[in-house]
Amino acid sequence: MTDQVSSLISRGIPTILLQASLPAETRDFVFAQLYDRKSCVKLMYVTPEMVGKSEKFRKALEWLHQQKRLCRIVVDEAHCVSQWGHDFRPDYKDLSKLRSQYPGVPLMALTATANDKVRGKIKILVFVLFQ
């Protein structure tokens, strides 16, 4: 994610990253950006584990949704929802809750690293989990 964020920033796209391994002052800055109505941030990268385990982040998402500033949710590395994939992470399955928690916010799941068999399984899982 760090490389993706750096690449976007270098292209002039205001992007931030939130993950548990960041220093506390960096996480505080990210949260300040989320609550700042004048923030120019357009994209935010966050781990599924942060979505599932951080009450502070969930409150920020709820606030953004209430303010109509949560435009879409994109789940990258969607192959991680598949136990048949090479990188299964249980927290990805919990992202299915986002559909009901943030009604009206489009939800997409993307991957570029799955073989044909895993892509087929992902289509089924994503359809079931995220509808």
Kindly list the characteristics that best describe this protein.
131 residues, mainly alpha, Rossmann fold, 2 domains, two-stranded parallel sheet, 7 helices, 4 strands
Q: Tell me the number of helical segments per DSSP (H or I, 4 or more residues long).
A: 7
Measured distance between first and last alpha carbons? 26 Å
**Unreliable stretches:** none
Q: Helical proportion?
A: 40-55%
Describe the sheet with the most strands: 2 strands, parallel
Shape: globular
CATH topology of the largest domain: Rossmann fold
Instruction: Give the structural class.
Output: mainly alpha
N-to-C series of helices and strands: HEHEHHEHHEH
**Integer tally of domains:** 2
What is the CATH superfamily of the largest domain?
P-loop containing nucleotide triphosphate hydrolases
CATH architecture descriptor of the largest domain? 3-Layer(aba) Sandwich
In total, the number of strands is 4
The CATH C-level class name of the largest domain: Alpha Beta
- Proportion of residues in β-strands: 5-15%
Look at the structure and give the mean pLDDT. Answer: 84
- Rg calc: 15 Å
What strand order characterises the main sheet?
1-2
